[in-house]
Every structure is written in structure tokens, then in C-alpha cells.
Amino acid sequence: MTALVIVGHGTRSAEGVAQFAALVERVRTCAGGTVGDVEGGFIELSRPPLTDAVGALVERGHKALVALPLVLTAAGHGKGDIPAALAREQQRHPGLSYAYGRPLGPHPMLQTALAERIDAALAGADRAGTWVALIGRGSTDPDANAEVAKVARLLWEGRGYAGVEPGFISLAEPSVPAVLDRLRRLGARRIVVAPYFLFAGVLPDRIRAQAREFAAAHPELDLRMADLIGDCDALADLVLERHAEAVRGDIRMNCDTCAYRVSMPGFVDKVGRPQTPHDHPDDPVGGHSHPHPHPHAHAHAHAHADPHAHPHAHAHADPEPALRPGAVAIVGGGPGPADLITVRGRALLEVADVVVVDRLAPQGLLAGLRPGVRVVDAAKSPRGPSVGQDAINTVLVRHARAGRRVVRLKGGDPYVFGRGHEEVLACAAAGVPVTVVPGVTSAVAAAALAGVPVTHRGTAHEFTVVSGHLPPGHPDSLVDWAALGRARGTLVVLMGVETIGAVAAELIAHGRAPGTPVLAVQDAGLPGQRSLPARLDEIAAAAARAGVCPPAVFVIGPVAAFAAEPVLAASGH
Ligand code: SAH
């Protein structure tokens, strides 16, 4: 039977620690044989530390645990710090596995417990004339703050209070005085301040102090404090319910509004970032709420210790993954064969959630993607001079903003006639982090795979790569064809199947010898690779006769003659 370790974040309050211990004891009693064993521990500040609790369970022979974060909402502690502490326990105890439970709230049992605490404070006064300020722990995580607002709404539904408004202690607005002032202006005469907190601690104390201060300044108000949820049977039952869920592997979390996954206004920096310690601005001791920055703390490892058990869990040991959620990598895939991509490019493909792929990108790489990875065929986006590129840019930005790791897989090198920089600029303009992974360009590789070096000592001391997309004389052409005609080095023409006749004529007109060797290489590196040698003045007719079609490069210059004496061993493709 799985053992349960209840994980608290720790508190400076001795009363809070005692309440935690009492709850652990109560869960043990309530479990009545449904749980193998129960221990509780804290990740910081308080005793016993988590490592003792886990150590005790391991000593008693437990290898498989349910770890339950004793938190009301999923914020930094539940998403980052506690999973990180558990990951360290796993390193300490090889073979230890655990299922990670979800946070306690929102849950009807908690709403009922809150209503009971509020009723106790009302002591018979009517609900209809009562406003409630529900005060949660403010977070830098908007999703966690939104949960408090949701609980406030659920508490109001059907219970007959005049109204329930959410407020926050530390780090989020409205603050305690701000929400009380709001209620006062709405005409409230009786207000109950209900802390949405489990146990005693520094923050609940501060709520009480701020409420008292507000009451002193507004003697006309009947302002009362409700008790904390505290150690009670309802809470123990809820812990056992969450335990049962985790045992069943039935963890339902809504990750759609999580700032660690999804880029939201004002929070774009959070996506994929580990937890960082932060000061509570109104903390009188001025200390860090997290005194130990956790180098392994990973945002969003919130469902399970095993990163593969949950599609949203990113529990990497590596503190800075190569491709963060919400980022784009423009990856050069090489000229065609699956094994001519770089090691870095391959590693990014392995972690990608979405791959946006070009027609000329190595299709063989797609078979090796993780199951569930979304493949977007960029060739299917609307055609046309720039419409297609705009559509691709939009797709990249949209997936990144949804918190996915996006790989844009291109043929060859992204910056060689690949429009890679347009995509980089589009991402940057949208505030999406973007990186580029260079690739093996067909401009060099196609010749090489056909046995031709683009330079060779004593034969060619330069090579020029030129696009044949626009023929010589085209008004938009930026190429100095006359200079290329005068030059003696190697000229590699890409995208030139349609224009090779015009290109050859122009080069000859400006001084290249008609007998200059040319090699056309089609489908370099792929099973259908073929090459066709010809003289410069005959290449267009020869290519047309042979039916050369894209993708193909033309290698023009003395080095092309090396193709006539093949010396390379077969590559195995
Ligand atoms: N960024 C790519 C080039 C894109 S332009 C790179 O660096 O390789 C597309 C052109 O590349 C094609 O028209 C063709 O000229 C060339 N090309 C790409 N893959 C090729 C291949 N496997 N064999 C021959 N030519 C190829």
C-alpha cells in the first residue's frame, strides 16, 4: 500500500507547526488502514524537514509514495519548490518513486469550512447584512491569485452573504486595507475578514493586524475576524481524497492559465523559468520568503515526479533546458538525409512540442519525434510572395505564446535563402525568445555529396553562392552577374532549374569560357540523388533533356570536373 508524505512549506509560527503536526496525526487516524503509512515534513523553516519524513518512510520499507503538497492553491510552492525538494529526496534514495498530488483547493469541503468559520464570527448576526473579505496569500503567479477570486465567488454563491470580495496579503492587489475600503464604499456596515489560510503563520497574523488597524480608523464599521481553516476532520478528509486521486493517477489540473507555461500580459518572463526567491514587499523582517534559492526548482513539475507521466510536467534536472516553453528555435536540418542535422538541432527536436516543417527539410526526422508532437506543414500555408511567410510567422508566434517549445525545421542552413532571419525578426517583434541553429547548407553539401569540393588548392580559391530565383536582368535582382562572369572561382546556383539557361548565357557573355565544367546535382543525399555533368554552354539543354527538377544545385567552375573521376566510397544511402 502506498505511503503518504504530507509536505508543508514551513512557517515561523510555532502554532502553525503544531497545527500541521496535529493534522498529520488526524490523517493517520482518519485513514483507518486505507493508507500504508503517513508522515509529514516541511521544505523550509520548520521541523521536521521533509528529508526526515521521507527517510522515516523509506526506513520502514516504503519505496512508492504519494507526496501531497499541503497548499490551498497551486503557486510557487506547489509548482516549483516542493517538486524540487522531492526531486532531491529521489536523488538521496535511489529507487524511490512518488506520485505528486494536486493542491487542496478549490473544494466544497473548504467552502463549507470557511462558511463555518464566518458563521462563528457572526455569532448569530445575519448573513444578508454581512460582507466577507476573503483574504488569500498573494502571489506573483496570476493563476494562483485567480484561484482566490474563484473561491470568493464560490463562497458567495447560494449562501446569502451580501457579498464576498477577494483580497490579498502581500504581492497582489487588492490589499487588505484596499478591499476593506472597497466594501466600506459599497455601503458595508458589517464585514467579516476570512483568511483563506490553513494554519497560523506570519501572513495570517499580518492580515489580523491590518484588519485591526482599518477597524480602528473606521469605528462606524462592525469588523470581525474569522478563524483560519485549521486542523479539522474536513481537512483530513480532503487530504485523503487527494491521496486517493494520486494513487489512481487521476490528477486533474488546469494548466491553461498557468504563467509558467503560457505567456500572459505582464508575465512573459515567467514562462519556463525556475522559481526565484522574492521579497514580500510588506514583510517587516525584510527576509526572503524562500531563504534557499533552489537551483533545481522547476516551474510546473506539478503533476508527477516523472516528467513523462504528465504532458505538462517539465521536471528536468537541467536547470536551463535548451528550448524553454514559449520559445522558438530556427533549426537548419541539413540538405536532406536525417543524419546530416547538427547534434544541437537534433536535441532541440527531441524536446519540441510543435515542429513547423518546410518541404525541403529532412522529412526522415519527423518519424523520430516524440508521440504527440504537433507537426505543422509550412508548405501547406497559403502560397504567394509574402502571404505564406506571414502565415508561418504567425504560426510560430501563436504556438510560442501558448507556452509550447517550437522548432522551425528548415532545409540546409536557415540563413542561406531560407528566410530564417525574417522568422527571427517576427518572433523578436512579438517578444518571443528565439534562437538559431545553423545547418549544413546544400550550397556546399550537394557538391560534396556528388564528389565535388567547392574549393581545391590550385583550382578554386573562392566560391560564390547565388540564387537563380530571379534571372539575370530581372528588375528586382541584386546579383552582379557581370562580375560573376568575369570571376574564375566556383559558382553554386541554387533555385536555378528554371533559369539556368539565362544564367549560363549571361556568364558566357561576361567572360566565362563556354567550356567551363558544370555539374547539376539533384536530390543530394537522398535516395534519388543524381548528378549530370555538362559544359556551361550546354547545361540548360542537357538538364532539360535529363528532366532535372528541383531541388537541384548547379556547380559551375573548374572544380566541377572532379565529378568525372569518382573517388568517394558509397555513403550507404
Ligand atoms: N537553406 C537551404 C536552401 C534553401 S533554397 C540550404 O541551406 O540548403 C532551396 C534550394 O536549395 C533548392 O532550390 C536547391 O537549389 C537547394 N537544395 C536544397 N536541398 C537540396 C538537395 N538535397 N539537393 C540539391 N539541392 C538542394
> Quick one: CATH class of the largest domain?
Alpha Beta
Percent of residues in beta strands? Answer: 15-25%
> Which fold does the CATH topology of the largest domain refer to?
Rossmann fold
Number of helices: 15
Distance between the termini: 54 Å
Q: Roughly what is the average pLDDT, rounded to an integer? A: 87
Q: What ligand molecules are bound, each kind once? A: S-adenosyl-L-homocysteine
Low-confidence stretches: 280-321
Instruction: Tell me how many strands there are.
Output: 18
Q: Which of globular, elongated, flat, extended, rod-shaped describes the shape? A: elongated
Helix content: 25-40%
Topology, element by element:
Blueprint: E1 3-8, H1 14-31, E2 38-42, H2 50-59, E3 64-69, H3 76-92, E4 97-100, H4 108-122, E5 130-137, H5 142-156, E6 163-169, H6 176-185, E7 190-195, H7 202-217, E8 222-225, H8 233-248, E9 328-332, H9 343-351, E10 354-357, E11 374-377, H10 387-401, E12 406-410, H11 420-429, E13 434-437, H12 442-449, E14 463-467, H13 481-486, E15 490-494, H14 500-509, E16 517-522, E17 530-535, H15 539-546, E18 552-556
Parallel strand pairs: 1-2, 1-3, 3-4, 5-6, 5-7, 7-8, 9-12, 9-13, 10-11, 10-12, 14-15
Antiparallel strand pairs: 15-18, 16-17, 16-18
Helix pairs in contact: 1-8, 6-7, 10-11
